[in-house]
Amino acid sequence: MEDLQIHGEILETPIHACRDVTKSTGRFDYLGFLSSMDDIFTRLLSLTTCITRRFIRFIEDLVLQDVNRRSEDWVTISSEQHPRSSTQSIYKSVKEECSSSSNSYVADTIRGRRALDLRRRLFVNTSSEIIETNYRHQDIPSMFHWSMLPLFGVQLAWRLALASWRCPFYYIRCAQVRVRSITSRVRKTLRGSSDDIGWLQRTPGMAPVEDGTARFLELLEAIRNGDHTLANSFIYLLIPGLFSKLGPLYFVATKRFFSKKGLACHVAKIHSEASVEHNAWELKQYIEELYWGSGKRVMLLGHSKGGVDAAAALSIYWCDLKGKVAGLALVQCPYGGTPIASDILREGQIADKETRKITELILCKLIKGGDIRALEDLTYDKRKEFIMSHKLPYEIPIISFHSEASVAPGVLATMTHIAHAELPWLPLPNFGNESDNLVQVGRQVPVVIPLSAAMAVSALHLQLRYGEKSDGLVTCRDAEVPGSVVVRPNRKLDHAWMVYASSKKNPTEADACEMCEALLTMLVQLGKKQQQKELGSSSSKFAS
């Protein structure tokens, strides 16, 4: 019976199968229960078969030992008792006959033949008994094997029944898993960014915002009346957003406007299609070059992703940029993230892998040097991770500007001027010079696209799906930076209006250049107020 411990697979009681039945899901899984019961009965039948075989072997050994012992005893008894008695009787008769007739040779010959016949008879009887006993012993195991046939039949029938049950249940379980996966993907796709929009306002511990719309409108009205008070003691750095190299006129009109006013204005030459951390490092070096080259502090104005890059530069490298940056204005900046990027790159939704491959093809192949991380860094998950890890310094004034795009039908006919196309030289007649009647003339043709119409469609989509106001790409709530002064103009402005000129201009309304000047003027005033508060607090501490 000690041989039962050799087979480790039998001694291993189906504990794992029992554990599978009651998992921590909180619900009873019928398929898992049937599969576990199948394993339990299979192991029990294996254990029963092994014990039966060992028991039969044990009985065989006992019977064989008993038969061998009895056969040995029988041979010993028959060889000791019967030969001795016959020999003694023969010896007595021979002795008596010898005493009567010792000289008879015939009598001696007869007696010898009788003794030899008796010995042969005893040997034949003993051998036949031993052979008969061995045949009986060989019949014992076959009897036990025939008695185990019903058990083997039951075991085979049970395995066939479990196999026939397991196959349909397996396919049903696979179908259930597939349906649950599709349902989860559909639910995640339909849910979208509903739980992420405005997460900055719902997060505890975030600093409140201050409304500065009224002061902004006052400064804008004064600028339109010719009152330009923007100080020349700063360097103004304009930071473009995503896909800025596709539009050569990005911030060009604003820079020209500032240069005419005698202000030092630069457009940051960064790769806007790169990741946020990469652009933050480039902006840090760019700001340090401007500061050490002029000795003036830098005012930052970032549009769209450019605002995210500028905020990241201050958050990561504030120890190096402290005292070199005077303020930060974020214009239509997805500081908290954008639902457009999140809905495109969200994992677990329908066709998520295909959508990501198409996006990578557009950013990395069609736009040379683009990086998928440039769009991925604008998703809600990445923005939450970055903002929680890198806090924006509040030692400088910060302005958040956001607007709402118009979804009126008239916007669909609005064209946006994004670049100039240079036509080849054309020969034209010259009437002023008789010697040369032809002049080579080149002409620039404006490149316009329905960018405002695309922003209007996107804004309508976000309004119908999430019920959120936006400029077409960034919702109003995600553009408000905690602890900043928020500017919310009543005018309908899409996401591209601040950097590109529109074909339809209203002379009675301010343009993008005047709005940028008003934002920077307000930023300078907020910086002066902040310095006065710091001086007042330091003087009061010194007096006390």
Tell me roughly what share of residues is in helical segments: 55-70%
Q: What strand order characterises the main sheet?
A: 1-11-6-5-4-2-3
Spell out the helices and strands N to C: HHHHHHEHEHEHEHHEHHHHEEEEEHEEH
What is the count of β-strands? Answer: 12
What's the alpha carbon Rg, rounded to whole Å?
51 Å
* DSSP strand content: 5-15%
- Which stretches are poorly predicted, pLDDT < 50 over at least 5 residues? 1-28, 81-109, 129-141, 430-441
Class of secondary structure makeup: alpha/beta
Distance between the termini: 95 Å
How many helical elements? 17
Major sheet size, sense and barrel closure? 7 strands, parallel
Morphology: elongated
Q: What is the average of the pLDDT values?
A: 76
Protein name: Alpha/beta-Hydrolases superfamily protein
InterPro entries: AB_hydrolase_fold (IPR029058)
Organism: Dipteronia dyeriana
Task: Please describe what this structure looks like.
By secondary structure, this protein is of the alpha/beta class. The chain has 17 helices and twelve strands. The strands form three sheets. The protein has a seven-stranded parallel sheet, with helices on both faces. Strands 10-7-12 form a three-stranded antiparallel sheet, with no helix packed on it. Strand 2, helix 8 (252-260) and strand 3 (264-267) form a beta-alpha-beta unit. Helix 7 packs across helix 17 (512-543). The chain is elongated, with a radius of gyration of 51 Å. The model is unreliable at 1-28, 81-109, 129-141 and 430-441 (pLDDT under 50). This is Alpha/beta-Hydrolases superfamily protein. It comes from Dipteronia dyeriana.
